[in-house]
Design a protein that fits this description.
Layout: H1 2-10, H2 14-17, H3 28-33, H4 40-47, H5 49-57, E1 68-73, E2 76-81, E3 84-85, H6 87-96, E4 104-109, E5 115-119, H7 120-136, E6 145-148, H8 153-165, E7 169-171, H9 178-188, E8 192-196, E9 199-201, E10 204-206, H10 208-216, E11 224-228, E12 244-246, H11 247-253, E13 263-264, E14 268-274, E15 282-287, H12 289-303, E16 310-313, H13 320-332, E17 336-340, H14 351-359, E18 363-366, H15 368-377, H16 380-383, E19 392-396, H17 402-412, E20 419-422, E21 456-459, E22 471-476, E23 486-487, H18 491-498, E24 507-515, E25 521-526, E26 530-533, E27 536-539, H19 540-548, E28 553-563, E29 567-576, H20 586-597, E30 606-609, H21 623-630, H22 644-659
Parallel strand pairs: 4-17, 6-7, 6-8, 7-14, 8-11, 11-12, 16-17, 16-18, 18-19, 19-20, 29-30
Antiparallel strand pairs: 1-2, 3-13, 4-5, 9-10, 14-15, 15-23, 21-22, 22-24, 24-25, 26-27, 28-29
Bound molecules: adenosine monophosphate.
Adenosine monophosphate binds near residues 399, 423, 426 and 447.
């Protein structure tokens, strides 16, 4: 069918996937000790969905118990209605009353090599003090706070301090440009920005504060900026008296006690922006009760977390994976989280393996793009280190090709660690499709089955389930506790993007998928205009808008082209304005422009200049054909083209260009 074909084009590894017949049953020695050892959870969820989630909610501390588990008036869901709780209380206070007070909550290593350990007692104290700092600056329940920080413990402190007060945080990944930061701050109408003087990345300094200053030139809602000193003398920055405050100065004066604010289960916990199919990122809203239940339960089931584990999720807290599985899930479960500030190849390519050996990491959760980079760098970097502490491996962010899965299993997992390939999204808040490591027989490249309580289907364009082996759209047909509740400031977009294509009861994921004859799910990549570059979601339209914003560009079409390491790479086809000469450095100039507008993660890998773009008669650019050209495939259906000669010329030019 057409859509499956579309998805297959997006991910050509799919034909390889379907030749994949290797199976890996859970190792018996793992199952005996696993948190989930049998199919009971699946059966319970099938029998009584609300009872099942109510039981999962017992894993959270409530100030007031809920009256109703679920109110579902499609497409609007409310979970644990009437319940009251606090996310920071669940991550801290309930642990400091037990032996865990002196257990490490965060073990951190900075890129230059410093180490810090914060026990649950330490983290509780820092968070309480910082919540008082925020209060002192006028932040109260419901106010939004923006965070633009490096991966340092103060980022976790800031997040939990916001949660303690009931002030929704909105974290902006430190790799975003001042302009992207400004857009997100304004969308959330944040009152305070928390940042650092800078961050370390591959030995150089990311000028975070300078970016904030630039962004704030157009952010009238921001009253105060709090600055963590991470770099010190080596960074040049301006200090705006009256607006800017040093974190450490404020902390020196802050009182120790700050009670956690009781929040309604449906009160927002945070806003996190993600790319959609338009130029404007969507502010996904997550609420407190359902989210905390969802992330803590899935963290227990999927990662089999135990008190003695050292859990390392390598995601930056700027992404949802960091929110759910660096901060809220693990800390709610009283786990020890390892956190690393820098990049995997600094000062050399064995940094991660050195870390695993040094801290005895037992669970590693990372992205396929990282695994493919390591494969490319060679096993010698891995072999130097003792990775015997690892017992479970996870992946997230994009489909993992079987070859990378096998490499991960063999070279990192020593052949003994189960792999959990977890499919989920910013909007789902929690893992939705994944093996349970003590239960599920895995197949390399398949995310296997929906978790207990989750129902996923693969449907055709009319919403009918497709037979196994056929491609279709992945949809979720039941509400789940950690689901997004709305798009901040744009409730209509919530309905139109997720719940209109197949009606108000069916959540449209935007991903293509297939089910094999054993009902295993195989994700095929996005079916919309969203690219997945190194596991990061980037909108083609957003990059196109950045390009046409350049004074010399008349028109631009952007596609995600298959890339051996990144999964997809950004490729742009650009038409220059009449009279603009094509100079040698024009492509670099445009790449820099995209970095300035969005951030380095959106930088086009290649820019191809063309006099015309292939369009339908109604004037729509046919990106599908551009992808065919960029990937050297036979062209798909060209009958709807207004001028079929354009595409033929473009292909010849493209190929000539690639050869030269
Ligand atoms: P984000 O919201 O930025 O976390 O991106 C979510 C998107 O990443 C999904 O819609 C998928 O396209 C992709 N994705 C995440 N995890 C997986 C996975 N395990 N397998 C395949 N694709 C994935």
């Amino acid at each position: 069918m057409a859509e499956g074909g579309e998805a297959e084009r997006a991910n050509p590894t799919i034909s390889a996937l379907f030749e994949e017949h290797r199976v890996f049953p859970p190792p018996p020695e793992f199952t005996v000790r696993a948190n989930v050892r049998d199919r009971l959870l699946y059966e319970n969820a099938e029998r009584d969905l609300e009872g099942f989630w109510a039981e999962a909610a017992e894993g959270i501390d409530w100030f007031r118990k809920w009256d109703r588990v679920l109110e579902w008036s499609p497409p609007f869901a409310k979970w644990f209605v009437g319940g009251q709780l606090n996310a920071a209380f669940n991550c801290l206070d309930r642990h400091v009353r037990t032996w865990r007070r002196n257990k490490a909550a965060i073990i951190w290593e900075g890129e230059p090599g410093e180490q810090r350990v914060l026990t649950y007692g330490d983290l509780h104290r820092e968070v309480s003090k910082f919540a008082n700092v925020l209060k002192h600056l006028g932040v109260k329940n419901g106010d939004r706070v923006a965070l633009y920080m490096p991966m340092i413990p103060e980022l976790v402190v800031a997040l939990l301090a916001c949660a303690r007060l009931g002030a929704p945080h909105t974290v902006v990944f430190g790799g975003f440009s001042p302009e992207s930061l400004r857009g997100r701050i304004n969308d959330a109408q944040a009152k305070v920005v928390i940042t650092a003087d800078g961050g370390f990345r591959r030995g150089s300094i990311v000028p975070l504060k300078q970016n904030v200053d630039e962004a704030l030139a157009g952010c009238p809602s921001v009253e105060n900026v709090i600055l963590v000193r991470r770099i010190g003398e080596a960074v040049h920055m301006h200090f705006h008296e009256g607006r800017d405050h040093w974190y450490h100065r404020l902390m020196d004066e802050a009182p120790l006690q700050c009670p956690a604010e009781p929040m309604d289960a449906e009160d927002p916990l945070y806003i996190l922006h993600t790319s959609g199919t338009t130029a404007k990122p969507k502010g996904v809203v997550h609420t407190t009760g359902g989210y905390m239940v969802g992330v803590s339960a899935t963290h227990r089931w999927v990662f089999d977390i135990k008190d003695e584990d050292i859990f390392w999720c390598t995601a930056d807290i700027g992404w949802v994976t960091g929110h759910s599985y660096v901060v809220y899930g693990p800390l709610a479960n009283g786990a020890t989280v390892f956190m690393y500030e820098g990049s995997p190849d600094w000062p050399d390519k064995s940094r991660w393996w050195e870390i695993i050996e040094k801290y005895r990491i037992s669970i590693l959760y990372t992205a396929p793009t990282a695994i493919r980079s390591f494969m490319g760098w060679g096993e010698q970097h891995v072999r130097k280190h003792d990775l015997s502490s690892l017992r479970l491996l996870g992946t997230v962010g994009e489909p993992i090709n079987p070859e990378a899965w096998m490499w991960y299993q063999e070279h990192i997992g020593g052949g003994r660690c189960p792999i959990v390939d977890t499919w989920w999204q910013t909007e789902t808040g929690m893992i939705m499709v994944s093996p349970l490591p003590g239960v599920t027989t895995t197949k390399p490249g398949s995310a296997t089955f929906p978790l207990p309580g989750v129902r996923a289907e693969v449907v055709d364009e009319y919403g009918n389930p497709v037979p196994s082996g056929s491609g279709g759209y992945l949809v979720l047909t039941r509400p789940w506790p950690a689901m997004l509740r709305t798009i901040y400031g744009d409730p209509e977009r919530y309905v139109s993007v997720y719940f209109s294509r197949f009606g108000p009861k069916v959540y449209f994921t935007g991903d293509g998928a297939k089910r094999d004859e054993d009902l295993y799910l195989w994700l095929l990549g996005r079916v919309d205009d969203v690219m997945n570059v190194s596991g990061h979601r980037i909108s083609t339209i957003e990059v196109e808008s950045a390009l046409v914003d350049h004074k010399d560009v008349a028109e631009a079409a952007v596609i995600g082209r298959s890339h051996a390491v990144k999964g997809q790479a950004v490729a742009a086809f650009v038409t220059l304005k009449a009279g603009v000469p094509l100079s040698r450095d024009k492509a670099d100039d445009l790449k820099t422009h995209v970095i300035e507008k969005i951030g380095a993660l959106a930088r086009p890998e290649e820019i191809f200049f063309t006099a015309e773009l292939p369009k339908t008669r109604s004037g729509k650019i046919m990106r599908r054909l551009l992808r065919d050209i960029a990937e050297g495939r036979a062209l798909g259906d060209t009958t709807t083209l207004a001028d079929p000669t354009v595409i033929a010329r473009l292909r010849t030019q493209y190929e000539e260009n690639a050869e030269s």
